[in-house]
Design a protein that fits this description.
The chain has about 1600 residues and is an alpha+beta fold. Helix content is about 50%, strand content about 15%. An eight-stranded mixed beta sheet has the order 21-22-23-24-26-25-29-30, sandwiched between helices. The termini are far apart.
Length: about 1600
C-alpha cells in the first residue's frame, strides 16, 4: 500500500471512529467496527475533500438514502466551518420539514486544506487548534425518518442549505450588528431627540445596551428612511446598511408591506417614541424557530421629527424571560408607571402583587403592550384575586397582524379539550388562521391561557363585541359537570351527584350533552355486573342508513376484538368507536361504548322493529346465546330475529356434519343473498312446528312450498338452488323440535332416509342438537335402541365419527334388546386442559348436560302407562318414549349426570336412562368388558389347543394397568408373559418376563387409584427392558428387546414410534388391545381412510401382524379391512363388536332390571336404597348371564369358521338377500362382493372370522327386527324365555313384574333370535326360509318348537361345558350333529304345520314321546345305520365326550324321525315301540341312510340346488314314514323283520325292482340330483303298493 493510500485509510478510520462514536449498531444498521462504517467514512471524506473555508466559505450539504437491507432512515450530511447555532438551526429545519430525527453525529475536526480547498488532513479539534492555523470544521451526519413514498431529497437539501446560509450571515455579521446597537445607543445619548421624554429615552438607551450584553441573538439589521410616496408615508431601506439576514438581496423588503398597512398603523411611524417593540411576521431560521423579535429605533431630525428607523431582528435570550421586570430596561419603566397609575405605594403589598403579576405576564406581550392597557389589565386581574370566574383581555397588534388574548378561568377546569374549545372560539371570532398559545397553571385558583391569533397577511382583523365574546368563553369554561349536576338536581336524583361527580371522562363530556349523561347514569344504576344496556339510535343529523349504537356495561372493559366482529356480522359497517370509562365513587366502574354504524344496502325488511331486533341480537351474541357469524346479518338484511338466525345456523351446521360440500362461509353468503327465500324457510318451519299455530298445517305447508318453488325458480345459481333446497329438505325431514320451548340448546329429530344424498348407512332416527356451546347427534337404528354418548374432539365431522361407531354398535347390540344407537357431542368452548383441567372437565360436563337435556326435550315420556308428548313440541312421528344412553369415550363418569337430569325431568326410565351410574353396574369393577373379550381369546387359543389358564403365552398390548379393559384383561390369567405394552404416555418393555412376578406387579398397579407404566417396579423387569416415555427423542435398543420382538434392525436406538411399530409387529402369541385408537389397517387402505391422525406414525398393516391371536377389548383398534387382511394371513380374531360386547350386554341387563323395579320403587313397594342393594347383590349373576352370551357368540363363530368354505355360496346368497331387503350394504360393512367371493371359492377360501362376525350380527338383527314387528315375545309360550333372562334371585319374587315388563316382548325376541342363531348357525334362518318359503316368524316358531321338543338347548349347553380335554374340533363336530337335528326338525314343523303352528300344543304333543323313546332309538337301529351310530358315538367318546352326550349327538338325525313316528303311531293307534322298530328296520332294509348321506353330499350350489336337496330329503323322510305306515297296516303284529318279509312276499316283483334300482344308484360314485330323484321315485312307487 502506498503512503498516500495508507494516509487515506488512516483518515477514514479516524473519521469513522469519531463520526459513529457512542452510536449503537442497532441504530446504524451496521457494525461500528465493520467495513460498512469505514466505507461510509471514506465516502464522506471523498465528498468533503474540496471545500473553500472561511467567513464566506462553502457549506457542503447532501442527503441520500442507504440502499441496505433493513435500513429505514435517510442520511443528511453537512461539512462547514464551525460556528454557533448549526445543530439547533439544522434540526429545526428538518423538524419543520416533518422529518423525525433518529440520530445526530456532530464531531468537530481541525482540518487542513490547501489554497484550492483540497483536504490534506483531519485532526482532533482542541482549544489550541485555531492558533495553529488549522480550520475548525463541523462535520454533521443526521439520520432522519425515511420517506417511503419518495426518495427525492432535493428540496430538503435546499432548505437545509438556505438555513445554513442564514446562520453564516448571522455569525459573520454578529459583531457588526452588536456594534451597530452600541453605536445607535451612543448616538441617542450624544444627540437626544427633541421632544422625547427623558425617562423613555434613557430606558430606550438602556435597553439597547442591555441587548448587547448577551440578552439578544442578533439575526438581522437594516436602516430605513421614512419618505412620502404619492402622499403616503413609506419606509425605504438605506442601501448597504443590511446585516445578517437583512443584507442586500435578502428575502424581504419590509417597506412594501409597511406601505400597505392601514393608515392608523402607518401613523405610528410618526409617533415621537424612540422604540418600536413588536414581533415580525416570519419565524427565525437561526437558533430556534420562533417568531423574530422586532426592535425598531427611530431616527429624528433636528426638530424631533421621525425621519427613519434602524431595525434589529433577532431573538430575546433566556434572561429576557427569566429576569425580573424590575431588572430589564423598558419593562421596569412600565412597571413603575403602572404602579403609579394604580396609585400603589412602592414596597406595599399591592405593589408586590403587581410585580408578581407582571413577572408572570407573557414576556413577549409585556414588551409590546402600552402602559395604559397594561394598567387596566393589571388592575382587573389583581381585582379578580381568587375569584372563580372567566375573564378575557384582548390587545390588537398595531400592524393588524395578530391579536393577543389573555383568558383567565378556574384552574380546575383546565383541560386540553377546554383549551382547544376556547382556541376555536377566539380563532372564529377574530378570523384567525393560526394560533399560538402558552398556558400558566399555578397554585392560584385561576389558570391563564395566552393566545396569539394570527390573521392572513393583509387581512383586516375582525373586531367582535368583547363582552359577548367573553360571555361565550364563560359558557365554554362552564364545566359539563356543572350542567349535569343541575339536571340531576332537577330530576330529583341528587343522591347520584357524589357517585358521578368525577365519573365521566372528558371525552364523554365532549361527545354527549349532560342530559344524556343523566340518562346513562340512571341506566348504569339499574345494571347488575356483566349486564348490558343497549341503545341503537339515529343521530340528529345523519344519512338514513347511518345509526349510532351505544353499549353500556358495569364491570371491566369490553374488548373491541369481541364487539366489532359481532357488529360486523350483524351486517353493519362500523365507522367509528368511542369508549368511555365511567368511574363511579365507591362502586364498580361502568363502560360506555358508542359506535357509528351504517346499515347494509338494499331493502330493509321490517324497519319498524329493526332497533329492537338489532339490540336483542347483539345481546344474544354477546352472551353467547348465538354464535357470531354472517347468519346474524339476517337481522338487518331479512327482517328476522336472532332466534331465526340461530335456526338457520343450526341446520347449516347439520349440513356440514352430513357431508355438504359447501363451506360454511359460502352457505352463509347464499342464505343472506337470498333473504326473501330465507324468510320463506322460516315461515315453513313455523307452520310445521309452532305450537301456537292454529291454521291447517298441511295446507299452509303446501302454500309455503309453492311460494318456495316460485322464488327458487328465480335463483340463477345451481349451487344456490342446491343449498336452499337442502334447507327445505331438512325442515321437511324434521319430525320434532324443541325450538319453541325457549331453550338455548335446540334439538331436531329427523328421519335421515328422507334426506337426499345422506351418507350411508342411514339410521332410522336422528336427533341433531345445536347451541353455541355444544353440538351433537344421536343416531338410532330403531325405536328401542341403546348406545353410549361420546365426547368427541372432531368439531367438523363428529357425526362421521359417530356414524362409524353406531355401525359397530348396531352389530354389537345384536346380543341385547335394543338395537344400535350412538350419540356424540362436541364442546365448543373448552378451556385449555393443560392450564386448567378442572375447568376443562367442568365445561365438558356442562356441555354433556345440555346435550342430554336436548335429547330428552324431544322424547316422549310415559306417565302411568300413557305415552305423553313433550310440552310445546309438535310431533309428526309416532310415539317414541324409549331413549337409553350410556357412557363412552370421554363420558365414563357422566352417567350419574344423565340420570340426575332424567329424574329431574321425571322421565319414565329414571336412573335406567343411562347405564353405568353409581346406582348401576361398574364395568371396571366387574371387569366385565375385559372378561367378555377374554372369552374370545380363550376360544382362539382353545382352537390352537392352548389353555390360557394353565399354559404360559406371550403378549403385547395397548394400554396400561389403570385402564379398564387393558388392566383387567392382564389379570385374567396368571400365565401371561407381557413382553411389551404402550399407551399414549409410555412404552413398557420386558423381553423375558417372569409370569408369576409380573402378574403380581400388575395386580399391585391395578389396585392403585391412579397409575402409569412409570409406577412399575423396574427391578422386576428382565434384562434389556424398561419403561420409556413416548416423548423421548430416541430409545436405546437392547439385543434382548430385539430378540423378544423379533425386531430385525442393526440400529442400537430408535424413535418411540418405531419401537411401537415393532411391538405391533412382534412375533408373540397375543395382541391385547385395551386402548383408544386404530393401530392396524389393511395394506389397501391409507391413513386418511382410517381417520385417526394421532396414530398414523405407528400404525401397521394387517399383513404385517405376526401374532397368533388378537383380543379386541377396545373399540376400533383395527379397521375391518385390516382384520380381514390379518385373518387371511393366519391371525385368529373376531371383531371388536364381538369381543367387547359384554359391556353393552351388562348395561342392557342393568337398564331392564331398573325398568323392572321402577314401578315398585314408585309405589314404594321397595325403597330406592333397597333396590340398589338388590342390584348390587345380582352383580355376579348378571356377569354370568353376560359372559354366557360371549361364550355362545364365540361358539357360533367357531362353528362358522369351520364351515366357512363349505357354506361360501350360502353366505353369498344370504348377503344378496340382505342387500335386496336394504338391510345390508356390503361396501359399508367391508364384506366381499360377488367377484371376490368367486375368487375365494376358487382358492378354497370362504369368509374370514371378522366377516362372519358381521354377518352373524346382521342375521340376528334381521330376525329380531321381524319378531319385534309382530311382538312375538308377547305370547305366553315366551314367558319362560323372559323369566330366564333375569337373574335367578328375582325370578320367583318378581315373577309377575317380569312377565309384565314393558319390554318383555323385545327381551323374548332378542333371546329367541340369539339362541336360535347361536345354535342353528349364521345361515340357519336364511336357509330355512329359502328352502321352505316360510317367513322369519314361522321359522323361529318352528325352530323353537323343535328345540324344546328335542331338548336341544340342554344338549348344546352340555357340549359347551364339556371337559377342557375335549378339543374344539370335536366340539364343533358335536355341534354340527345337533344343528342337523335342529335343521331337519324345524323344517319338519314348517312342512307339516305351516304358519299355524301352535307352540304349546306341538311341544306337548312331541316332547313326551321324544323324552320317553329317544334313548331307545340307537338300539332300534339296524345294520349300517347302527354301525354308523356306533362309529360316530365312539369317535366323540374318544375325543373326551361323555357317552351320554356322544350318544345324543350321534343319534340326533335318527331321533329326529320320532316326529314322523309319533305322528304315525297316533294315526295307526299303534304301539310306539313297534312302529320305531319297523321304521328303522325298513330304513336299513332300503338303504335310506345311504340315500340321505348321498343327498347331504350334493353340492350346495345356487338356491335352486339347495331347494332340490331339501325337497329330496323331505320326500325321502316322507316316503319311509309312509312306507312304515303301509307295512304296519298291511301286516299282522310280530317282529319288524317278520312284518317286512310277509309284506314283501306279496309284492316281490315291485320290491325286486326297487331293490335293484337302489343298489345300482348306490354304486354310482359321482351321484347327482337326477340319479337320486330316480331312487326316490322308485321308493315312492313302492309306497303306492304298500296297502
Amino acid at each position: 500500500m502506498s503512503s498516500q493510500a495508507l494516509l487515506a485509510s488512516q483518515l477514514a478510520d479516524f473519521v469513522a471512529k469519531r463520526l459513529f462514536r457512542d452510536q449503537a449498531s442497532v441504530d446504524l444498521g451496521f457494525e461500528l467496527s465493520g467495513p460498512m462504517a469505514l466505507e461510509q467514512a471514506e465516502d464522506m471524506l471523498a465528498w468533503a475533500s474540496i471545500r473553500i473555508p472561511g467567513a464566506d466559505g462553502e457549506t457542503l450539504v447532501r442527503a441520500w438514502t442507504p440502499d441496505l437491507p433493513g435500513i429505514s432512515y435517510s442520511v443528511v450530511e453537512i461539512v462547514t466551518d464551525d460556528m454557533p447555532f448549526l445543530v439547533d438551526s439544522v434540526t429545526s429545519e428538518l423538524t419543520r420539514e416533518g422529518r423525525a430525527i433518529q440520530l445526530v453525529a456532530h464531531p468537530l475536526f481541525a482540518a487542513t486544506r490547501d489554497a484550492a480547498g483540497h483536504l490534506t488532513g483531519v485532526e482532533e479539534l482542541d482549544g489550541a487548534d485555531s492558533k495553529k492555523g488549522l480550520i475548525p470544521e463541523s462535520w454533521m451526519r443526521i439520520h432522519i425518518e425515511r420517506d417511503f413514498i419518495s426518495d427525492d431529497l432535493r428540496e430538503l437539501v435546499a432548505g437545509v442549505a438556505r438555513v445554513l446560509a442564514d446562520v453564516r450571515k448571522c455569525v459573520n455579521d454578529w459583531s457588526a450588528m452588536r456594534t451597530m446597537a452600541i453605536e445607535v445607543s451612543g448616538d441617542l445619548r450624544r444627540v437626544p431627540p427633541v421632544g422625547i421624554d427623558p425617562v423613555d429615552l434613557e430606558e430606550s438607551i438602556a435597553l439597547l445596551e442591555w441587548l448587547t450584553q448577551d440578552s439578544f441573538t442578533f439575526v438581522g439589521f437594516k436602516e430605513y428612511e421614512l419618505l412620502q410616496v404619492e402622499g403616503e408615508d413609506a419606509l425605504r431601506p438605506v442601501p448597504g446598511t443590511g446585516l445578517g439576514v437583512l443584507r442586500a438581496n435578502a428575502e424581504q423588503d419590509l417597506s412594501e408591506s409597511f406601505a400597505i398597512l392601514p393608515p392608523a398603523v402607518r401613523a405610528r411611524a410618526r409617533e415621537k417614541t424612540v422604540l418600536v417593540l413588536s414581533k415580525a411576521n416570519s419565524r427565525s431560521t437561526v437558533h430556534r424557530p420562533a417568531y423574530l423579535d422586532y426592535i425598531g429605533v427611530k431616527k429624528f431630525d433636528a426638530q424631533g421629527n421621525v425621519i427613519g428607523e434602524r431595525r434589529f431582528l433577532g431573538l430575546f435570550a433566556a434572561r429576557a424571560y427569566t429576569d425580573s421586570v424590575t431588572e430589564i430596561p423598558v419593562l421596569r419603566s412600565k412597571y413603575h408607571r403602572v404602579e403609579k397609575q394604580l396609585d400603589y405605594v412602592a414596597g406595599s403589598h399591592s405593589a408586590k402583587d403587581l410585580e408578581a403579576f407582571l413577572d408572570t405576564y407573557p414576556r413577549d406581550e409585556l414588551f409590546q403592550i402600552d402602559v395604559d392597557p397594561l394598567a387596566q389589565i393589571a388592575k382587573s386581574v389583581l381585582h379578580l384575586q381568587e375569584r372563580r370566574q372567566t375573564k378575557l383581555y384582548v390587545r390588537y397588534d398595531p400592524y393588524e397582524r395578530f391579536v393577543s388574548s389573555l383568558v383567565y378561568f378556574p384552574r380546575d377546569r383546565y383541560t386540553t379539550a377546554l383549551r382547544l374549545r376556547l382556541e376555536a372560539i377566539l380563532r372564529d371570532a377574530f378570523g384567525g388562521i393560526h394560533v399560538d398559545y402558552t398556558a400558566r397553571v399555578s397554585e392560584s385558583v385561576l389558570a391563564r391561557l395566552h393566545y396569539v391569533i394570527h390573521v392572513p397577511s393583509g387581512a383586516e382583523i375582525l373586531r367582535p363585541e368583547l363582552a359577548e365574546l367573553e360571555a361565550r368563553l364563560t359558557i365554554a369554561t362552564r364545566t359539563w359537570m356543572d350542567e349535569y349536576q343541575s339536571l340531576i338536581l332537577g330530576s330529583g336524583n341528587s343522591e347520584l351527584i357524589p357517585i358521578y361527580v368525577d365519573a365521566f371522562p372528558e371525552s364523554y363530556k365532549e361527545d354527549f350533552d349532560p342530559s344524556v349523561g343523566v340518562s346513562d347514569s340512571r341506566i348504569i344504576e339499574t345494571l347488575e355486573p356483566g349486564e348490558l344496556a343497549l341503545d341503537l339510535y339515529a343521530p340528529v343529523v345523519t344519512d338514513s342508513r347511518e345509526l349510532r349504537f351505544k353499549v353500556i356495561r358495569v364491570g371491566p372493559a369490553m374488548p373491541l376484538t369481541k364487539i366489532l366482529p359481532i357488529l360486523e356480522r350483524l351486517g353493519v359497517e362500523v365507522l367509528d368507536e368511542h369508549p368511555y370509562e365511567i368511574t363511579r365513587k365507591d362502586r364498580a366502574s361502568a363502560w360506555i361504548l358508542d359506535f357509528g354504524l351504517v346499515l347494509p344496502s338494499g331493502e330493509i325488511f321490517c324497519a319498524d322493529t329493526l332497533f329492537v331486533r338489532f339490540e336483542a341480537a347483539f345481546e344474544a351474541a354477546w352472551h353467547r346465546q348465538i354464535e357470531s357469524d354472517s347468519f346474524n346479518s339476517l337481522v338487518t338484511r331479512a327482517g328476522l330475529t336472532w332466534q331465526d338466525a340461530r335456526l338457520i345456523r343450526a341446520y347449516a351446521r347439520y349440513m356440514r356434519q352430513i357431508g355438504s360440500t359447501f363451506g360454511q362461509g359460502y352457505i352463509e353468503m347464499v342464505i343472506v343473498e337470498n333473504a326473501e327465500i330465507t324468510r320463506l324457510l322460516i315461515e315453513f318451519f313455523r307452520v310445521r312446528f309452532d305450537p301456537k299455530f292454529r291454521g291447517d298445517r298441511e295446507a299452509e305447508s303446501g302454500t309455503a312450498r309453492e311460494q318456495f318453488e316460485s322464488a327458487l325458480a328465480m335463483v340463477p345459481s345451481l349451487d344456490h338452488d342446491r343449498i336452499l333446497r337442502l334447507f327445505w329438505s331438512l325442515i321437511e325431514a324434521t319430525m320434532r323440535t324443541n325450538y319453541y320451548t325457549e331453550t338455548s340448546t335446540v334439538a331436531f329429530k329427523l328421519i335421515p332416509s328422507l334426506i337426499a344424498d345422506m351418507p350411508l348407512p342411514r339410521p332410522a332416527h336422528e336427533i341433531w342438537v345445536y347451541s353455541p356451546r355444544v353440538e351433537g347427534v344421536h343416531l338410532r337404528f330403531g325405536a328401542v335402541s341403546r348406545g353410549g354418548l361420546r365426547w368427541s374432539d372432531r368439531r367438523e365431522d363428529f357425526r362421521t365419527e359417530i356414524l362409524g361407531l353406531v355401525k359397530a354398535q348396531e352389530v354389537k347390540n345384536a346380543v341385547i334388546v335394543p338395537v344400535g344407537a350412538k350419540g356424540g357431542f362436541f364442546a365448543k368452548h373448552l378451556p385449555d386442559p393443560a392450564l386448567d383441567r378442572e375447568a376443562w372437565m367442568a365445561e365438558g360436563k356442562s356441555s354433556y348436560q345440555d346435550f342430554v337435556r336436548a335429547l330428552l326435550s324431544v322424547t316422549d315420556n310415559i306417565v302411568e302407562g300413557v305415552v305423553i308428548a313433550p310440552v310445546n313440541v309438535v310431533c309428526h312421528d309416532p310415539d317414541d318414549p324409549y331413549l337409553v344412553v350410556a357412557a363412552d369415550k370421554g363420558t365414563a363418569s357422566f352417567s350419574d349426570l344423565a340420570n340426575a337430569i332424567a329424574i329431574e325431568e321425571n322421565f319414565w326410565l329414571g336412573d335406567a336412562f343411562a347405564s353405568g351410574g353409581s346406582a348401576g353396574y361398574d364395568h371396571k369393577d366387574m371387569a366385565i368388558t375385559a372378561r367378555g373379550a377374554w372369552e374370545s381369546v380363550k376360544r382362539h387359543f382353545f382352537e390352537m389347543e392352548i389353555d390360557t389358564q394353565r399354559q404360559e403365552f406371550t403378549v403385547v398390548g395397548i394400554g396400561d394397568m389403570s385402564g379398564d379393559v387393558f388392566g383387567n384383561g392382564m389379570l385374567l390369567s396368571e400365565h401371561i408373559q407381557l413382553v411389551a405394552a404402550f399407551d399414549h404416555r409410555h412404552i413398557f418393555l420386558d423381553p423375558n418376563p417372569n409370569a408369576a412376578s409380573s402378574f403380581a406387579e400388575r395386580t399391585r398397579l391395578a389396585a392403585l387409584s391412579r397409575s402409569s407404566w412409570v409406577d412399575y417396579n423396574t427391578e422386576l423387569i428382565s434384562a434389556g427392558g424398561g419403561v420409556f416415555p413416548r416423548s423421548a427423542k430416541t430409545i436405546v435398543l437392547t439385543q434382548e428387546a430385539k430378540d423378544a420382538l423379533d425386531f430385525d434392525t442393526e440400529a442400537d436406538t430408535c424413535t418411540p414410534d418405531l419401537l411401537i411399530n415393532a411391538i405391533l409387529k412382534a412375533r408373540v402369541d397375543l395382541l391385547w388391545n385395551g386402548g383408544i385408537g386404530t393401530y392396524v389397517k389393511a395394506s389397501t387402505e391409507t391413513n386418511v381412510d382410517v381417520g385417526d391422525k394421532a396414530n398414523d406414525p405407528i400404525r401397521v398393516d394387517g399383513s404385517d401382524l405376526r401374532v397368533h391371536v388378537i383380543g379386541e377389548g377396545g373399540n376400533l383398534g383395527l379397521t375391518q379391512l385390516g382384520r380381514v387382511e390379518a385373518a387371511r394371513g393366519g391371525v385368529r380374531l373376531n371383531t371388536d363388536a364381538i369381543d367387547n360386547s359384554a359391556g353393552v350386554d351388562t348395561s342392557d341387563h342393568e337398564v331392564n332390571l331398573k325398568i323392572l323395579l321402577a314401578p315398585l320403587v314408585r309405589d314404594r313397594s321397595i325403597t330406592r336404597a333397597r333396590r340398589d342393594e338388590l342390584l348390587h347383590s345380582m352383580t355376579d349373576a348378571v356377569s354370568d348371564l353376560v359372559l354366557a352370551d360371549n361364550i355362545n357368540q364365540n361358539v357360533v363363530l367357531s362353528n362358522a369358521r369351520a364351515g366357512a368354505v363349505r357354506l361360501v355360496t350360502v353366505h353369498q346368497r344370504m348377503m344378496r338377500d340382505l342387500e335386496r331387503k336394504e338391510l345390508l350394504n356390503r361396501a359399508i360393512e367391508f364384506l366381499p362382493d360377488d367377484a371376490e367371493l368367486d375368487t375365494r371359492r376358487s382358492a378354497g377360501e370362504g369368509l374370514t372370522s371378522p366377516e362372519l362376525a358381521v354377518l352373524l350380527a346382521y342375521a340376528k338383527i334381521e330376525v329380531t327386527k321381524e319378531l319385534n314387528a309382530v311382538a312375538l315375545g308377547a305370547h305366553a309360550w315366551c314367558d319362560q324365555i323372559v323369566i330366564d333372562y333375569f337373574p335367578q334371585a328375582i325370578r320367583q319374587r318378581f315373577h309377575t313384574e317380569i312377565l309384565t315388563h314393558s319390554l318383555r316382548a323385545e327381551i323374548a325376541n332378542t333371546v329367541l333370535a340369539n339362541e336360535l342363531i347361536n345354535i342353528g348357525g349364521v345361515t340357519f334362518v336364511f336357509r330355512a326360509i329359502e328352502e321352505t318359503g316360510a317367513s322369519t316368524v314361522e321359522v323361529v316358531k318352528a325352530a323353537y318348537a323343535a328345540m324344546q321338543v328335542f331338548g336341544i338347548p340342554a344338549l348344546w349347553h352340555g357340549i359347551n361345558t364339556l371337559p377342557e380335554n375335549v378339543s374344539a374340533r370335536a366340539r364343533t363336530a358335536l355341534h354340527l350333529e345337533v344343528r342337523r337335528l335342529l335343521d331337519r326338525s324345524a323344517r319338519w314343523f314348517l312342512q307339516n304345520r305351516g304358519s299355524g303352528i301352535d307352540i304349546d300344543s306341538e311341544i306337548a304333543g312331541f316332547a313326551q314321546s321324544v323324552r320317553e323313546f329317544s334313548g331307545g332309538v340307537p338300539k332300534a337301529l339296524r345294520g349300517q345305520e347302527s354301525e354308523r351310530f356306533e362309529r360316530l358315538s365312539q369317535r366323540f367318546i374318544d375325543a373326551g365326550s361323555p357317552k351320554e352326550i356322544a350318544d345324543q349327538a350321534a343319534s340326533g338325525l335318527d331321533v329326529f324321525s320320532l316326529l314322523d313316528i309319533t305322528e304315525l303311531s297316533r294315526a295307526l293307534d299303534a304301539d310306539m315301540t313297534e312302529v320305531i322298530e319297523l321304521y328303522f328296520e325298513l330304513s336299513e332294509h332300503f338303504d335310506v341312510d345311504q340315500l340321505l348321506v348321498r343327498i347331504t353330499g350334493l353340492p350346495r350350489g345356487d338356491r335352486w340346488t339347495a331347494l332340490a336337496r331339501q325337497a329330496l330329503r323331505s320326500d325321502l323322510y316322507s316316503v319311509i314314514a309312509e312306507l312304515t305306515g303301509g307295512v304296519y297296516a298291511a301286516t299282522e303284529s310280530g317282529s319288524a323283520t317278520g312284518r317286512i318279509s310277509r309284506w314283501e312276499e306279496k309284492r316281490a316283483e315291485g320290491v325286486a325292482r326297487t331293490r335293484s334300482t337302489l343298489d345300482e344308484i348306490l354304486q354310482v360314485e359321482d351321484i347327482d340330483l337326477a340319479t337320486l330323484s330316480v331312487g326316490l321315485r322308485v321308493l315312492r312307487n313302492l309306497v303306492a303298493q304298500a296297502t
